[in-house]
């Protein structure tokens, strides 16, 4: 017999998203989460929601938990900029950093194809964009800056080369750089800040309509990436906060760039988009982009949508840099949010937080599953559940009783020697 303590909407077809569209209303920012980085249904339904937001509510872009340079290559493709390439699978090969499957997968290829088709008859800022919010691409961003500026602005290019030269002794290894700066009071902070100042003070011209914004964003990424890698050696939540602060700053810059009427869609893990102040992360002094966006724009203007599953399969690695594997996701632990939803019914469903606020057990923290790119199913009960006040952390939640792994584009990854620098793998 079904246990139905609160209302929900069965999710079987795209029309069922009407209730979510109504809940989103006129919000300027919609954040769509995921409980893993390797589950097909999360990508597929975020695409369905994003299509409707762009078509029906005029959203301007999708910004994801990916690196800026790689995602900008996709942005150039979907907007048909000069020399952007034409084959989606080829352009997605830019995602060479482990974990490659996060964005180099067939589900993302379907989103990219739709965005390109949508943009075909649009002009200028009517075209929907695709951008990366993350902070990992220190060397890639520096390389792009130098390559772009060499024929345009010699002084700014020289500042960028000075920053690259400062990092050269560390052989493009963030681990080596972070460790070196932990023991010797010499780092490259001044060089990247000078480069940022030089780039920001100059007008950059390009046949790419977003070339100037792209160059300045790469400079900002380099500054914050350097700060992030140094913070990781201190431990605690400092590096997490640097990373999510950068994501929030990038989101603000994108909204400003697209104009006062612009609206943005964010795709990130639940641990980033679900308001951290309603989890145990807050006790460690950690915050996230979902919390920062609510504080910046107000709860009416920011809608946070979590995703989760009871059981299924997922793509992940046994350790940082390990080969991707298709792994079983066991049934959720007893008493967790996912277990509660499964015991109610095996329907895939949309739950609105306003329908949860009369349920006493949900007004306190309960376990809520979070699977990262590093995953060990047999140990998940000991470290993969975030204590969460569900009705406050999200505005809505989408639940799938059983899910399947995402479908990667097969490729060899790089950057696989960084395991102990990433205590957070979400």
UniProtKB/TrEMBL annotation:
Q: Which GO biological process entries does UniProt record here?
A: response to antibiotic
Any matching Pfam family = Erythro_esteras
What's the superkingdom here? Bacteria
Q: Which InterPro entries match?
A: Emycin_Estase, Hydrolase/PRTase-associated, UCP036794_erythomycin
Entry-linked SUPFAM superfamilies: EreA/ChaN-like
Q: Which residues form a coiled coil?
A: none
Protein name per Swiss-Prot or TrEMBL = Erythromycin esterase family protein
- What organism is recorded for this protein? Pontibacter diazotrophicus
Q: What is the lineage of its organism?
A: Bacteria, Pseudomonadati, Bacteroidota, Cytophagia, Cytophagales
């Amino acid at each position: 017999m079904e246990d139905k303590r609160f209302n929900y909407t069965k999710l079987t077809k795209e029309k069922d998203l009407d209730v979510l569209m109504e809940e989103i209303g006129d919000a300027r920012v919609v954040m769509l989460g995921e409980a893993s980085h390797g589950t097909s249904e999360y990508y597929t339904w975020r695409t369905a929601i994003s299509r409707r937001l762009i078509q029906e509510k005029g959203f301007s872009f999708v910004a994801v938990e990916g690196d800026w340079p790689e995602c900008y290559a996709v942005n150039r493709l979907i907007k048909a900029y000069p020399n952007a390439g034409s084959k989606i699978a080829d352009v997605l090969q830019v995602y060479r950093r482990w974990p490659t499957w996060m964005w180099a997968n067939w589900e993302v290829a379907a989103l990219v194809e739709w965005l390109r088709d949508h943009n075909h008859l649009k002009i200028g800022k009517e075209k929907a964009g695709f951008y990366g919010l993350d902070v990992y691409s220190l060397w890639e961003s520096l390389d792009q800056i130098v390559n772009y500026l060499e024929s345009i602005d010699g002084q700014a290019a020289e500042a960028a080369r000075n920053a690259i030269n400062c990092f050269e002794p560390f052989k493009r290894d963030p681990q080596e750089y972070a460790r070196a700066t932990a023991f010797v009071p010499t780092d490259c902070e001044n060089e990247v800040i000078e480069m940022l100042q030089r780039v920001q003070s100059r007008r950059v011209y390009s046949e790419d309509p977003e070339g100037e914004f792209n160059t300045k964003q790469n400079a900002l990424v380099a500054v914050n990436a350097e700060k992030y890698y140094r913070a990781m050696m201190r431990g605690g939540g400092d590096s997490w906060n640097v990373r999510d602060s950068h994501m929030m700053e990038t989101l603000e810059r994108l909204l400003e760039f697209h104009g006062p009427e612009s609206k943005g869609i964010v795709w990130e893990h639940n641990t980033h988009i679900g308001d951290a102040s309603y989890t145990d992360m807050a006790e460690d002094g950690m915050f996230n982009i979902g919390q920062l966006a609510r504080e910046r724009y107000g709860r009416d203007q920011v809608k946070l949508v979590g995703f989760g599953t009871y059981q299924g399969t997922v793509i992940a690695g046994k350790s940082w840099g390990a080969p991707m594997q298709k792994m079983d996701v066991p049934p959720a632990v007893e008493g967790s949010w996912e277990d509660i939803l499964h015991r109610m019914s095996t329907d895939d469903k949309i739950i609105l937080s306003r329908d949860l606020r009369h349920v006493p057990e949900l007004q306190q923290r309960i376990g809520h599953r979070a699977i990262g790119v590093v995953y060990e199913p047999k140990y998940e009960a000991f470290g993969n559940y975030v204590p969460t006040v569900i009705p406050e952390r999200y505005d809505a939640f989408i639940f799938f009783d059983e899910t399947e792994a995402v479908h990667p584009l097969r490729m060899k990854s790089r950057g696989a020697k960084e395991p102990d620098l990433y205590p957070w793998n979400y």
